[in-house]
Amino acid sequence: MHEAGHLQDESGSGSEDEMPQSPMEAPQNDAATSLSSHIDRVGLAPADSSPPEGDFASNLRASHEADKRKGKAVSRQIALWDTLLDARIQLQKAMIAANRFPLSDKTARYSSHPMACEALENLQHVAVSLTEELFILQGDLLRINEAIEVPPRKRQRLNAAPDPDPVDLYRAIMQELSASASALETAYHPWLVDTLSKWSAKVQAVAPNVLLPENRGSFMRNGKPSQMGVVILIDNVLRSDGARLLDRTRKRKDKHTRMGHGSPALIDEEAAGEEQVDVDVFDDTDYYQQLLRDVIAGRGNSDGHAGEAQWSIQQRERKAKRKKTVDTKASKGRKLRYEVHAKLQNFMVPVPIVGGEWHEEQIDGLFSSLLQT
What we know:
Layout: H1 2-11, H2 25-42, H3 53-98, H4 107-111, H5 114-143, H6 166-206, E1 220-221, E2 224-225, H7 230-249, H8 269-273, H9 285-299, H10 305-321, H11 360-371
Antiparallel strand pairs: 1-2
Helix pairs in contact: 3-9, 5-6, 9-10
């Protein structure tokens, strides 16, 4: 009785008619209270329990700010990509000029000239300085990623030795720079492969047909899209067609020739139609034309007209250089040579009226009456 009175005092609402709670009902109430608190804790509240209006507005504002930052980041990435494309397009002229340099057996004829020596020395300084700046930029970008360990390298300078032979010094520096570039590529190649595989899987999950080219089915297997990633596809192409692709970069696709090898007009017509493999030539005109088409399609304004015209001229030159099929048995009048003219539309030859009902005097009288003559 004393405990019951104590419970009534604590509740503040007890009455004499209320019966004390049975021992069987107490565990059920405790379980219901525990379940309710668990639902509130994990966020499984009823549908009518909406968040406060202030929290909804703040979440919407935060989502809007996040989308704005993403949009600005994408805009900066597109601007950076356009800048890199412009730089690559500008370098195409330098690559074409480099393919015109004479070979080693005819270099002395040009390098002995004083103006050529001065120009060569200036070119060496600019090329080495640009290469060093690119190495520094690439190293700084790679050091941001903790998964890549950038190998140490020594900065190269042309004036390292007193009065050296400029050609021999430049050759040695280029060998060291090539070794440094190979070491740097070896360092970040595993991360590059992992990144390509990750994003290839994400893209294929959204668009399975993205790896299919538009004009040929090289990535198709039995008429169906290939489920392999882009890394495996690239490895397969390089393994099967690597030699052919390498030969394509060693074929001169422009109308220029090397210095000291005669004028293009003196080259035999049949030899000019066939693209000869030259191990001292690097010509990626196909890749350059694809970049040019991407720039034209991406910008879609008047700035792309000049590039489009240049690409069209190059396409016509390539078609003109292709070897024409010549029938060797058609000489000496053994076959009649002729050209088929295109059909004339809406054309009818004059048909004279012979034996008609009207004679010439009647026709003249008709036109005289019409013309009042």
